[in-house]
Every structure is written in C-alpha cells, then in structure tokens.
Design goal:
The chain is built from 6 helices and 18 strands. By secondary structure, it is an alpha+beta fold. It has 3 domains: 71 residues, 2-Layer Sandwich (Dna Ligase, domain 1), CATH 3.30.1490.70; 116 residues, D-amino Acid Aminotransferase, Chain A, domain 1 (2-Layer Sandwich); 94 residues, OB fold (Dihydrolipoamide Acetyltransferase, E2P) (Beta Barrel), CATH 2.40.50. Strands 3, 4, 5, 6, 7, 8 and 9 form a 7-stranded mixed beta sheet that branches. Strands 13, 14, 15, 16, 17 and 18 form a 6-stranded antiparallel beta sheet that branches. A hairpin with a 5-residue loop joins strand 14 and strand 15. It is globular and about 55 Å long. It starts with a strand and ends with a strand.
Length: 286
C-alpha cells in the first residue's frame, strides 16, 4: 500500500474524525515477520530480504515478534540525533564501528497469529498494532501518529531538522491493499523530488549511474557514482528489465529500462538546472 503525493496536509473533518496523521520517515520500507523456524524476514517492495543487511535489528525482532505477526514499517538509521538515510546504505560493520543504530518503526499490521487483518479498517489495525507492540522495546516501536491536524502541522514544521520527511495522512476506514491509493496521502518537504529511472550506465546488475526523467520533463544522468549498496539495490530490481547497450547522443551507451521505475532524487539548494541530480533510492522500496 503506497500513499499518493499531496501538496498540502489534508484537513481533518468534524468528529468522528476520519484521518490519522503519522510521521513520514526517511528509511527503507519493509514488511517484518518471523517464520516458524525463527528466521526473520525484512521484505522490501521488490521482495528482497533485507535482514542480512541489518543483522542486529533482525536479532531484536526475533526476540520480540512471535511467528504469525506481519508488520509494515520502515528501517531507520540514526546519527547525531537525526535520521540518516545514507547510513542505511553502509555495511553492518561500518554502522557498528561508528555506533549508528537501526530501528524498525512499524506503522501498520497485516496479520496476527492465525488471522489476516488486511480487510479490517485502519482504526482497528492500529489498535491491534498497539496491542502487538505493547511490550516492545527499541529498536522495535510504533510510529508517532495523531488524529489532531494542528499537532501534525507542528510536527511537519518542527521535525524536519531531525530528518523526518513529512506527514502521511491516512483514512481511518481504509483497508490494506496493494498498490498506490488516495486513502493514504503523503506530504514531503521538497528537498527531494520524484523521477523516473529510464536507463542504467554500466552493467545491468551493477550500474554505476542512472538516466532519469525529472519532474520538469528533462532527462539527466545521476551524479555522483552510485554507492555499492545503491548499485546492488538498483541492479537487483532492474537487471532483468534492462535492454542491450544502445548509443545515446546525450548520455553515451545506455541500457534502457522497461517499464521505467519510480525513484527519489535530490538536487541541493542553489544548484543550477544543468547540474546532475543525486540518486536517493528506488521509490518502490517505500
């Protein structure tokens, strides 16, 4: 279930209030569950298991989650009091060496032991999530959420410096279903923007840069070069969609990707229009 982008935080209706406002965190979105044999799975949107990349977090989940519970949430890294997406791309050894913790912040519940609860309205799933996590301890916790529009606007204004991306407004009566939905609307601070991954430069399984379409319709090559973790992430998702090397007058030899893939890009404030965007992540990851 993926929220649609909105320009403004939606207004709350008169009681009974219809919207829940929660923090939009800067992390890797993943389902979290424990199999009967004790194996922890952190399943990304591309169905890749992220647990081997976050072994300490997975170990805590193994201790705190019984088999049968399925959570939806974000893996979030913290550095110096703020969320640090870049640290999610580092190796577990690098994070351990620099003392960067990673938490799993749950915002929805898909199943409890013996029951699929996706057909229940969000208001019921939220209560069940609270019950499921009532004894949970960090790094596992429930996302901060409110029914009060004024509080949500305060969070949007005050928590940007802590790395919070924005606010997600969710209809309390919404069931959980796959794909994008207007029942969930996200409002993000505009230091990043959405784009489309059109092609890759270098090997399809380990690209070094991307050809993207920006919101204004221009195409550009990302810079700097992808990190090893980013290259693996993109390669795992688009490797089988990438075509053969094709010469391109603007970007050089490109492997075009069909269909294009939504991505998040960043252009630092003050950059000139002709300068290249920086790849942040594949949007299908969360």
């Amino acid at each position: 279930m993926r929220p649609r982008a909105a320009d403004e935080i939606p207004a709350q209706g008169e009681p009974p209030r219809e919207l829940q406002y929660s923090l939009k965190l800067d992390g890797f979105r993943a389902l979290a569950f424990v199999l009967d044999d004790g194996k922890v799975v952190l399943q990304s949107r591309s169905r890749r298991d992220l647990a081997p990349e976050f072994p300490e977090t997975a170990a805590h989940l193994r201790e705190q989650l019984p088999p049968g519970i399925v959570l939806d949430g974000e893996l979030c890294a913290y550095r110096e009091g703020r969320l640090s997406f870049t640290d999610l791309l580092r190796s577990p050894a690098d994070r351990a060496r620099t003392g960067v913790p990673v938490s799993y912040i749950a915002f929805d519940l898909l199943a409890v032991p013996g029951q699929d609860v996706r057909s229940l309205p969000l208001r019921d799933r939220w209560e069940l999530l609270g019950m499921a996590l009532r004894d949970a301890e960090p790094p596992l916790q429930r996302v901060l959420a409110t029914l009060d529009e004024s509080t949500a606007r305060d969070w949007f204004r005050d928590l940007q410096d802590a790395g919070v991306e924005g606010i997600v407004a969710k209809t309390l009566g919404s069931t959980y279903r796959a794909g994008p939905t207007w029942a969930w609307r996200k409002v993000r601070h505009m230091d990043t923007s959405d784009g489309l991954l059109l092609g890759v430069l270098g090997p399809a399984e380990r690209p070094r840069a991307l050809v993207v379409r920006l919101v204004d319709g221009r195409t550009a090559t990302t810079s700097p070069q992808l990190t090893p973790a980013q290259s693996r992430e993109v390669g795992a998702l688009v490797g089988d969609r990438a075509g053969p090397l094709t010469p391109d007058a603007e970007h050089g030899p490109v492997r075009w990707v069909e269909p294009p893939v939504p991505v998040e890009l960043r252009q630092l404030a003050g950059r000139q229009r002709q300068e290249n965007p920086t790849f942040v992540r594949v949007r299908s990851e969360g």
